[in-house]
Amino acid sequence: MKIATFNINNINRRLPNLLAWLRAAKPEIVALQELKASDREFPRAAIEKAGYGAVWRGQKTWNGVAILARNAEPVLTRDRLPGDADDIEARYIEAAVRGIIVTSIYLPNGNPQPGPKFDYKLDWFARLKRHAKTFLKQDLPVVLAGDYNVAPTALDIYPTRSWDKDALIQPKSRAAFASLITQGWCDAIRELHPEKRIYTFWDYKRNRWPRDAGLRLDHLLLSPMLAPRLIKASVDKKVRGEDRASDHAPAWIVLK
C-alpha cells in the first residue's frame, strides 16, 4: 500500500500537475494540503475521473486539506483537530481507508516569530499531540501524514544561516515535533534514511530549487502497529521541477 502526502499549494491551479502525478505514481492514499479552495471549488469530478474517492475540508483563499483514496471512498472520521472550538481554520482531516486511519495535517507556519502566530503554531502542536495520544492508547493503525511546517533537525535543511529566525526551525518547533515522535510514532522517511539529506520543499525565492536548497517539512508518522510494515519511503522530487509546480514535492511510503 502506497501512501503519500502532498502540499499542492492551490489544487485548482495545480490540478494538471496533480492528475499527472496520480497517473504516474498510483498511490492508494494521498493526503493533500493547502487546497486554497472552498468546499464548492474542490475539483471533485476531475479527482473521481482519475479513479479517486475523496473527503475534504476547504477554505477560501488559503489552508484546506483532503484525503484521496484510489478506487475507494474514504470514510470521514474527523474534519477538525479537537481542543479549540474557536479554531475554524481548515488544517486537519482524518479518514478510514483500507483498514487504516490517515490524516492530512497542515500545521501552522508560525511566522513571524515570536508573536501570536508562533504561539498558535505551538498550541496547535500541543493539541495534535493530545489527539495523537488517543490513537496510541487504542493501538490503532494510523498514519499522521501532512505538512508539519517543521524541519526537525539540521539534516532536514540545506546548510545555511538564512533561516535561523524562521519559525520552521526554531528550537521550540523542533522540540514540539520531537515530543510527538517520542510518544511512539515512527518518522518513516528518517527511519529508512537516517543520514540522508532529503527535502520536500523548495521555496520559489532565491533560486532555491535549482540550487537544491530545500527543507524536509512533509512527514508521514506511523503508529507502532504500522511501523513494522514499512518497506519503502521517498520523495518524488522531480515533481517540483515541472512547469507551474507546487513548491512542495510528494513524500510517500509503502507498507507491506
Secondary structure topology:
Layout: E1 2-7, H1 15-25, E2 29-33, H2 44-49, E3 52-57, E4 65-70, E5 75-78, E6 92-97, E7 100-106, H3 116-137, E8 142-147, H4 171-181, E9 186-187, H5 188-192, E10 218-222, E11 230-235, E12 251-255
Parallel strand pairs: 1-2, 7-8
Antiparallel strand pairs: 1-12, 2-4, 3-4, 5-6, 6-7, 8-10, 9-10, 11-12
Helix pairs in contact: 3-4
What would your notes on this structure say?
The chain has one domain (2-255): Deoxyribonuclease I, Chain A (4-Layer Sandwich). Helix 3 (116-137) packs parallel to helix 4 (171-181). The mean pLDDT is 98. Helix 1 links the parallel strand 1 and strand 2. The chain has helices at 15-25, 44-49, 116-137, 171-181, 188-192; strands spanning 2-7, 29-33, 52-57, 65-70, 75-78, 92-97, 100-106, 142-147, 186-187, 218-222, 230-235, 251-255. A six-stranded mixed β-sheet has the order 3-4-2-1-12-11. A six-stranded mixed β-sheet has the order 5-6-7-8-10-9. The longest helix is centred in the middle third of the chain and has 22 residues, at 116-137. With 256 residues, the chain is an alpha+beta fold. It is globular, with a radius of gyration of 17 Å. Its cofactor is Mg(2+). It comes from Bradyrhizobium iriomotense.
Shape label = globular
CATH superfamily: Endonuclease/exonuclease/phosphatase
Derived from helix and strand composition plus strand pairing, the structural class reads: alpha+beta
Give the % helix: 10-25%
**Beta strands, count:** 12
Could you say what the CATH architecture is?
Answer: 4-Layer Sandwich
CA-CA gap between termini: 6 Å
Q: Count of DSSP helices? A: 5
**Rg, please?**
17 Å
**What is the average of the pLDDT values?**
98
Structural domain tally:
1
InterPro entries: AP_endonuc_1 (IPR004808), Endo/exonu/phosph_ase_sf (IPR036691), Endo/exonuclease/phosphatase (IPR005135), ExoIII-like (IPR037493)
Cofactor: Mg(2+)
Family: Belongs to the DNA repair enzymes AP/ExoA family.
Protein name: Exodeoxyribonuclease III
